[in-house]
## 1
Amino acid sequence: MRIQAEHLSYTYNAGSPFASAALKDVSLTVEEGEFFGIIGHTGSGKSTFVQHLNALLRVPTSLRKYRKKRKDPPSNTVLKVGDFDLTNKKTDFNALRSKVGMVMQYPEYQLFAETVFDDVAFGYKNFAPEKPTKEQIENAVRDALTIVGLDFDEVKEMSPFDLSGGQKRRVAIAGVIVTKPEILVLDEPAAGLDPLGKQEIMELLHRLHSSWCRTVIIVSHDMDEIAENCTRVAVFSDGEVKYVLPPKELFTHSEELLSLGLDVPLTAKICLALKKYGIDLKCDFTTEDFLKQTLALAGKGVKE
Amino acid sequence: MRDMNAIEFENVSFSYEEGGTFAIKNLNFAVEEGEFLAVLGHNGSGKSTLARLSNGLLEADSGVIRVFGEQLTEKNLFDIRKQVGIVFQSPDNQTVASIVEDDIAFGAENIALPREEIGKRIDFALHAVGMEEYRHATVSRLSGGQKQRIAIAGVLAVMPKVLILDESTAMLDPRGRREIIDCVTRLNKEQGITVVLITHFMEEALRASRAIVMNRGEIVMQGAPSDIFERHEELLTYNLTLPLIGRICRDLRAGGMPVTDTLDVDRLAKEIASCVSKQST
């Protein structure tokens, strides 16, 4: 499913003294099959944007209370996820939500059931069009727990609160992907985990991307993570999209990103520092390519 | 007479369940007064347990814990908590009041200080964390980094001699993380407060004067942070990774470029540049 947003704006507390514009006329398209990154510092509008994707936040025209007043100019907002038109109040938002999985920040805080099994089964039962059989539920939960790297028989009867931090997060993710969403959106999926836990979560996301979820969108502050994993990156700043580029091109704008108060990957920082010594290193900013290009640079010197 | 240690553990053991595995196993260690100590370790290595034992939030199964020479017992628990303050991980569940100054006052009010003194301490604490202009702000409208600085201020208002940060930066964005680390570095240098920084961000540990690495409730490595990072093979066995820049140094060397280990971007760039130019001349 392709995501297409045009002229999308959103204001919190509209019409009150606390009104603050979180999105200002944002246009952004995410193609099916991408591993898409969204960056921007706190308050830049990135969370507001992703919450639109499964209609946690609604375009005003899609709300029942919305009435077209004659004075209002016609809305030019477009927001489509696959065939779902999110500006239309007749859209089946429940069906949309089973297709767009949303993993919030620190999803382990949203675990609630007494056993891991019940927690993961909850979403599946809620979204099933007809009442699923016991067998269907068990199969779905087993598949979801297996793909996130947990042993179904070992953890199914355990309380989710007795698991380690990294395991809890994987159970929480299993609870979202159990409906087999085509698009998976994750807000800071690796935040707060130790380095090994981070690595495991990123491996899990790639496993999901190549099997269940055609499109993966991550919101992250970790630029190294973005540079290593994403096909394209959107940079949010002050409610607007400043850039949408593959990491390889984006981080050639390192100086601009730093001036926006954003971080850049370590590889980009080293490239920037190398410029001072008259060395213009070209690489795609993954660690692997950086090493290759740096070593090639030295090697080339020998031949000359 | 031994030198005064801020915190001292002698053969301390602790397990969460009776007969269960030890979260802290026969631990001996000391934090010197005025020191900036970093505690590293993967999730579940016992670093948070260590923090909680230090001010009596948890009670050791065996062994002796001393704070400024005084043995921690049930009787002096509350006096010791005045000396050892802990800031926790989540910025959202450490605030008790809706207005910044009320929140900072909470701890000081609890130890029944006179009103004028509390006022003075709020001034001091706000100044120490650089948040003076937020005195009357609403806590819920602050950023994560600002909320954590308010949490630190609340602890400072009790004027502890030791400040423990238990992964207090883990939930913050890079900017918020920098704010907190700058703040505690300053408190350590200017106010002489002993700082124990529990973290799994290797880069943060570099600010410390000493670092210890924990694994399965035991201290497995200690020394200057830069020395610890040089022992990367050993770090890997404790489920810790090198900071990315350390890995890049190592891999460049493995590829035949003789750079020395450094954690400074400019220095690495300089070394790469000199390697490249040497070879081309």
Note: Chain A has a mean pLDDT of 88.
## 2
Amino acid sequence: MSSKLLTVIIPSRGMLPMLEQCLNALGRSLEAAGVREQSTVAVVDNASHPPLPPKRIAAAGAELLRLDAHHCFALANNLAARRRPAKHYLLLNNDVLVQPETIGEMLALLERNPQVGICGARMVFPNGSLQHTGVVFGPGKQGPYHLLRTRPSHLMSRTDREFQAVTGACMLIRHVLWQELGGLVEDYPFGLEDIDFCLRARQKGWRIFCCQGSESLHFEAMTPGRAKLDEPSRALFMSRWQGRYTIDG
Amino acid sequence: MPNPKITGIVHTRDSAATLEAALASLAWVDELMVVDMESSDDSVAIAQRHGAVVHQIEIAPRIDGVRNRFVAKASGDWVLVLDSDEYLSDDAPELVQRLIAKQGQKHDAFALPRYNYLGEQVLLGGGRHPDYQIRLFKQGTVLWPDAHHTLPVVTTGPSRLWDVPPSHGPHIHHRNYRDLRQLISRQLDYALTDMYPDDPGSFDFAAYLARAHQQMAMRSEPEADGDLSQAMALVMAWDAVMRGLIHWDSLEPRPPLNMLDGFPRAAAQVPRWEIRLRRYLGRHLALRHLLKAVLARLRALLPKRG
């Protein structure tokens, strides 16, 4: 395996200006955590037409992997993890602007807790309301949902907290766990492969936390065509997992 | 059924600057051949580092005839040919195998779509995309005529060739030009080294001016390629004028240039309808290919003869 500490994987279908902002924020956060040199940032161009420009991606401090056919989110991440192995993987959406403290806090949480395999991040919408502070599960068809989504940020404590799942929009994962589970399941068109991964990790005895120390910005669902892929993904997820997770009180 | 064996072939001549990317993108093929024409840079060392079987040959006037000799040496069931300034995507192994598995029974050769880059920008206008290239084929089914820039021939017939729709992938990624300066330099090089007819009586400078007019009118597609499209149209128009002057300069005795007479005659030689039609087709290649695909399907519905 590579001696790198961290590979950040960012799939992107077009959206270059957004991606560049994402990479700029990520660069500042890697610097602040003191892990810039020990990290690889891999942008996976998921069949953008025209392709993403390699020099602009390189200028933003990232390597470019190019996919000519449009693949699911899981395959894009799995391919990048295979090509750029590291001790930890950070799955990051191209519409997330991480705070300078975020990566350092997430890495420190994993370092402190060897039994924690996955760490998520607290994120807010541009208007300051909560986008993600952890994923909880409702009864029946409700299934997984983001706790306190769109509610004012001050309603959620700043204490790091354990969950059954966190979003893959900004998710730090240990390599050993990634290997143990064989990466993300590629059956999901787009969405909920991250929650599937978390539940499988819990079955193996790993714990999952969400860092609440800093608030990154997440615009959410910016990828064109995303909405129409959500429904089949949710149907698949529920057929596999309904009744197998704990309903959060 | 096991995956068919694939041989990758790359021709090189002082290709060190781009070869690394080309060979790295072919790391998955079963057999890799590099045919090198007396490179004085690191091309051979790079090829060896990538585990390629290197064939050294003398500099040939035309690459096309040479291709056939080395395709015949390939041990793969299928052959994949790349130029040294081209590369494939990271999902190419899967896409190529999928393409062969799904379409390989019905077809002997595939024309792959190609992205052409000028610097960082992919050129999409003026028919530059999908820019089909016959590069993936069953051993023994494709021949290159021994001539400059001619298209290879599928020996089992055109119906055994399939233009792979761009949405299916894989693409060839072609780093044509580092920048506009390199394009200008290469065009001038081609113009200076090209052969021109030596009969002064048949020289007509207006024909060159007409080509320049045609280039400016038809190559410029700002909707597809922005300002770069206009810059390229100007370069190609300039190229036509330069060629006219180089041709004129090579004649003995030099005929009259008649530049001022040439302009109105040149404009008249290119009908406006032709300019409009070519522009339309250039901008709507996707529509053209869609129609082609519909026609092919309708043809498939017709009862088969014999």
Note: The longest strand of chain A covers residues 207-218.
## 3
Amino acid sequence: MPSTIVLNGNAAAAEAVKQVKPDVVTVYPMASGAEMMGHIASFAADGLIDSEIINMESGHSAMSGCIGASAAGGRVFTFAASQSLAAMHETLFIASSLRLPIVAAIVNGALAAPANMIADHADSMAERDCCWIQIFSENPQEIYDNIIQAYKIAEHMDVRIPIMVAADGFISSHSMENVIIEEVGEVAEFVGKFTPFQSLLDSDNPKTIGSRDMSQYYFEYKVNQLQGIENSRKVIKEVGKEFGNRFGRYYGFFEPYKLENAEYALVLMGSSTGTAKELIDELRAGGEKVGLLKLRIFRPFPSAELREALAGLTAVAVLERVLTPGSAGGPLFNEIRSALYDVEKRPSIFPYVYGLGGRDIRMEHFREIVKEMKAGQEEVVETGVEVKYVNLREAND
Amino acid sequence: MSLKNWNELTMGGVNLEPGSSLKNFTASYRSGQKPVFNPDNCINCFFCWVFCPESAIIVDREKITGINYDYCKGCGICENECPVKKNPKPILMVEEIVEL
């Protein structure tokens, strides 16, 4: 029987890892997720899992350890948050280029300076082009569910691309909620046994991994690598459905919330969606045609599906928890705007930046955004490149 | 050697063929100079053989016999390490014109 336990996001992630039983877990603790790794280390110390726990001296080393262990043929897990994810940067490219099915939990946090580490997607967005699948979670339940699904997706032979399962630091990672923990046997059966492919420890079949390719081959290599992340589109959908059939919670590229017959929509990712849903409920009760779309998969970006979901709307407000200096709007805004460029009747798309460094976004802010989106649609039709900041203190002249 | 297309590569570019570097003559990028071996004054001290980063000094029956130009990259370390003062030196770097 599945059990319902009150857990925070870090503990929920640790429960998922306990059930998936990786061979190797590399640990470099950062404040927001140190607890997660603490739980996993306790499980290993108590003999509940026989994972090798390796303490590392940086995020860079933690990912390097995962790369080695995964290339050797093991199922691996690690975690990163803000600075430690940034420290992993160069190794992330290597992990995906070598097609290693690594799963990493990311507890999203702001990048220094100033030192902060609280909920902010700057760390994840800085890694958006490293060919990792990026899954964003709203709450502890989703963190648990997403980590389990991540192993099945990453280890699929058509994919073999590493996955980051992200959640908002100190919000999803630390707030306690009811989490349904499935039976160990069920989870193990769902994820399946890990079959190493082209493992370095298979000495009967000697091979070279990570050799050098000059201009003769680099281009071909990188385009070849795209197959993995492109194939993952189908696999993510299948695994989300299969997970739902078995455990009752279905997952797709995104979660539409009261989007049917909506004229206006909010698009966002992560923990703030909960608050926004409250507002949607309130507005819908008042007869306003406003809906919400919570993006779950940022990479590969589900352009076609989003086009279908958002095409008929009058206006869309895209809310991002990241600052993209020197750009006309952040990555989510640009991707969505680009996805909708080819539709016949384009909605107006407004970029908002909120919640940097863990700044709160509350009902009243979402209410204001909906109001602005409605008014903006009448005044300016085709702009929307002027980024607006939510809940930012500003002195008036 | 014919080049493979992007959709003909192994997953992760893993090289599944042991010893395949024998097919790849890395000396193709040697430019400018190459060492020329002259056995007359060679004392077979093996300094060149020890220091050569490409293992391109050919040894036959405990004697230096020449240079493997398929792998020699023309770095000149062999000439530099050769302790023989007598002329002509056993290893001398000479200009090489590569025809493209």
Note: The first strand of chain B starts at residue 32 and ends at 37.
## 4
Amino acid sequence: MTSLRNIAIIARYEAKILWRNWFFRIFALAIIIILIFFNIGVFSSISNNRWFQRAISSGIPYANMIFLNVVQVAVLIFLATGIIKNNKKLDTNEVFYVKPISNADLVLGKALALFKLFFWLNAIILTIALIVNATSIDADINFKAYVYYPLLISFPNVVFTTALAFLMVTIVRNQAVSIILLLGLIAVILIYFRDKYYFLTDYIAFKLPLRSSDITGFSNLYNLILHRVIFLCLAVSFLFVSIFFLNRLPQKKVHKLATATIASIFLIAGASLITHYYDRHNTNELLRQEMITLNGEMADVPNIEIRSCYLDIKHAGHSLEGKAKLEIQNNQIQPLQDLFLVLNPGLKVSKLTLDGQEVSFTRKSHFILFRSQKEMPTSAIKRVEVHYEGVPSEAACYLGISPERYKKSWELFLYNIEKRYAFLQKDYVLLTSESLWYPTATAGYNRLTSGASQHNFTNFKLKVTTREDLLPISQGQVTEAGPGIYEFTPAFPLPQISLVIGNYDKKGIAVDSIDFNLFVHKGNDYFSEYFDQVQDTLALLISDLKNAYEQDQNIKYPFPRLQLVEAPVQFYAFNKTYENHQAYIQPEMVFLPEKGGNIGELDFRRQFKQMNRQAKRNNQLMDDKDKQANVFNNFVKTILTQQKNTSTYYWRSDGNVEVPNYGISPNLYWYQTGVSSKKWPLLNKNLANYLHQDNRYDRDMSRNWRGISLTEDCNNLMQEKDLEEILTSEKNFDKIAKVIELKGEYLFTYFEHLMGKEDFRSFLYDLVHQHSNEIIPYDSLRATIKNHFHLDIEPIVERVYSQGNLPAFIVSGLREYRVLDGDRNRYQVKLMVENVGVADGMIKVDFKYNKGNQANPPTTFDNHFGSSLISKGQKKEISFLLDEKPRRIFINTMISKNIPSVINLSLGQFEMNTRAKPSQGELIVQDEDDAGLKEIIVDNEDQGFSTFSPIQEPYFRKLILENRKERNQKYYGVWRRSATQWRPTTGSSYFGKYIRSAHFTRPGKGEKLAIWQATITEEGYYDVYVYLSGEDGNNAFSQNQSQRKNINYRYHVSHDDGEDEITVDISRAERGWNFIGSFYFSNGTAKVTLSDESENRSVFADAVKWVKQ
Amino acid sequence: MKIEIESLSKTYPNGHHALREVNLTIESGMFGLLGPNGAGKSSLMRILVTLQKHTSGKITIDGLDISRHRDKIRPLLGYLPQDFTYFSKLKTWEFLDYAARLSGKKRKKERAAAVSAMLEQVGLFEVRNRMANKLSGGMKRRLGIAQALIAEPKMLVIDEPTTGLDPEERIRFRNILSDLSQKDVAIILSTHIVGDISSTCNNMALLHQGSVAFNGSPETLIENVKGRVWQLEVDDAGFAALKEKYAIISTIPSFDKWEIQVLAENVPDYDAINIEPNLEHAYVYFMENNLNVALR
């Protein structure tokens, strides 16, 4: 019926016509120019671009295809709807309609014309990419990627978009309406659907995880091809539907039938592939559900512990065969008869023996249930052997991660990466304990059973048989027992082991009896050339780094080796509720991302460039050796040992938690020992964090956006829900993590306060040393502390973990001056803290100093300086005597109702106070009776404050300004200035009791008003003051005298003699209370208003004070 | 080539009867289709070129049923619609080449020769590299006929071929067609310009309200009106009076009088000369007498 020849002819001429279309030419030229710049800017050696963008060989064609793809869809829609529409001048079509060609020839010919055109466009773009790729000095070329990316991304997209456009025009019969509908559809796909329904709507492949690894290739190529074939099938179906409905009589009646048949066949094929695709993903979800449910059922079932585990693993292509010989022990107080082991549900157990006797077992998902013939009394030991084989299911990993987090797409630059937690391929294996690849004896996650942090220390031994050309990596001393056979013997019991097998090159160096090994996939060594000068001094460098680290942490690195292993780009690890590290860190092992991933410190080209620039700026003379040593140290100190001060900024309430952390500190504590407590499962994590001397900190900028910070969000949350509820039901993991962090900070500040910081710390270090390679039961920890410090920690732990009521601190009377302490000049800081909340609480005070003489001196947080326990209703004066002049004070109220929870105030000039005596410590203060002083303060949080905003926010702006999720928020960030409303915001420098807040708005013409009203009960003259925080927009206070411009606020004071306008130049005002005049007020309401008329970028309304003369 | 149309009817979905029981036999040579607007000419032609289905009746083309064998009939067709003036961005020769290839001309050399010859024939060879949409109206029309002819059709259907053409173009066009009519090709010419038919067609049909009112040679139609066409001269006053009495076919104003042709059995009150009738006279007469359509 159709003739290929006719299709080819039509395609040829229609393509010619399209090519002569100016719209297409302009688009093509524009996209080519943009992509030339894009390629040069992002991938070429000329620019200072990031390594991860070009590190993986397939990255350049992938990025190009993604970029082009989104743009070409829009153009394709215009062209495709144009080419198929029924011409207004019908006669033009009819000339061709009477030619001896079939309807299919016509439609397919036109479709093919579009394909041809876009084929050439893609070819040109890829050629540009290839040229840039080839001329880049350090990017590898992957020719295959130049074929498979267009086939996976562009080809199905062009075909499907064309077919969809044809179908749409055929149905709607109007080009303009069709274009609008199609563009709308694309927008919905890109903005709303994105990664929903396992990317099933993402036919453009904009979000589809297509990042391929140079180690393991595509992850799940079958799924990807399936996804693309679905759209090809649907495209064929749509094309034939368009043929069916083409407004032309068919060549033969039978053609109509044939067309309908083909359309139906492909539609059915597409639909069944969709079902298949969906099922493949959904099966995994069902498996996860089933496992979680089973975990819940089994959580409280008493079971044996595994003392030792000898594993004999055979890597058999795409599956593994394992024999596990276990020594199990009953550590329960009661005898056990029904026992279970846990193994990945993808691994099928073929045989199970108990003390040499084969026993029957039942498999329930990941559980292996079996029964001992006789009861196992307490402490009894038995031997179990498990034979299993298969492919571990990745869906079994990270059951504790919420579906939202689990499914959230992983994007880096233009690359979408599939999150992988385990690999088992012909030439590559990566298995961590998360994937349950060897038998264990504890049930895993269930949201109702939170005590999931139990870990035991087991004597592992591992024998691996693999292909001779592959190298296995695991924990322990390795011996090669034969070709392709390796045995690993860890030095001591471990909580877990991992196995990696791959085509690795090993680089090793022994320093201070520790083996430092680096395993890099063959062909991925991009770094050696940067470190040619330090080969002979490497041992020295490492030794220094190691010693400094151990000194810092007060714990010796316990393992005889540290192995850095390059993991495929898709390898991903989640932060877990009860652990303080991700699976990137294994005992004596770190999984670094393929070719350094986007770790800036492993982007050596940029690192060296930066170092050169810095050296030049500082007029430093550095030879290559110094530079290389610096770059090396920098990587280790920032990434592995984390001794370097680094800060992470974050702006919203989510985002930081999934950032990978490659710090090796879990090796010092978590993989060494641990405190186990079913009742207080978070204690171990909090302790680990406490022991880890971390110099990294988060800079939470979210107050500027949202009005309050994450900590305050979490404090609010803790008032509403108890810890258990937060841990199990909160959707935002950042909040969970922050709550845990706050609890830990509070608990350990409390401990320090009661036991003394130094004593408590050194006690803990001793404890860790004494309990190497074993778990410390909580009860024994409690007993030891009681013994040592005569303190029962249980009530404190109980209070911290279960307390819902919060303290609230009013900080006032901050004074700073210099005093003479003997003949020394010292710095005195005093403040009053009153707890007006409903529970006792703690505050912690830190100071920040100016250090160094550089123009922009680095500032550091000193170690925690002092803490104070303030019971409810108590008021304390706290005094600090410092040797160095501090610049700022940080009063951290930790868990409290305070907003901001950390009050950060700048300290003044420290004028000499000759009369004062130096003092230190805290003093309980009785509330003084202020009978003599008659003042009335109205703060913006008070009843007497109101605002008047005559204009409502336009709906659209409101939608943008107020993120839908945060619509109920009380406070607003100052970076989102409202034009028509007064909005409350918070900050340390505003006036307030425990909530320091102010209202602000964008300046206007005086129509928006802030009003303070006070009730005067004693008539007379009053001095009126207004509170100015100094945070007013332009930072007027910090400007140089000479640059100061008048910035006025206009106040109106209503008093007995009428109303006065008082203009206050805030650029010359003082921080705090500013006197604006004395007025006579008779009994009744006194009013001060502030208009929004100002030269400032924002107008702030905080507090007003009336002081009786 | 023989086209047989038997009791052909076409009713549109809106109930309009475009064709009623049309019976015609068309053979090789020029065949004129005459009729007022809305008589059903276009419907008939669109059905003949397989663009539309008919409601009932039967059409066979050289024995092939049109509703069954579109695949065999379409290769025999050449079609030039009335308003074929919109061209896509193709050069003149490319457009013709496109049409030639779709019509089944496979060999490149042969096709190139045919395209050149056709361009020569329609006088577009000089502008063969010009974009088709940049051609003048007459050139476009010629390119239109060229694309219909390049397929070497056995049945050529041309709708209103000479509308909008200047006299020179019109003559050239007629010549092309009369050359063609020497071959075994049925040329169906629809027009409401009677002159087009009289000069070229040896057979014709007159359609009125969807039915065939007349079918035969133009001569037969003219025979009917012999001795009934009169020419006379009147002044303004006389012209008004005359209009009341007779069917006026044409009026030519002269210095102070009107030169007028009327249709009548005789014109007793005037000094009239009986003149030789042409097809136009015959058409008007036929419409007035046989179909009672008043043209006055």
Note: DSSP finds 24 helices and 47 strands in chain A.
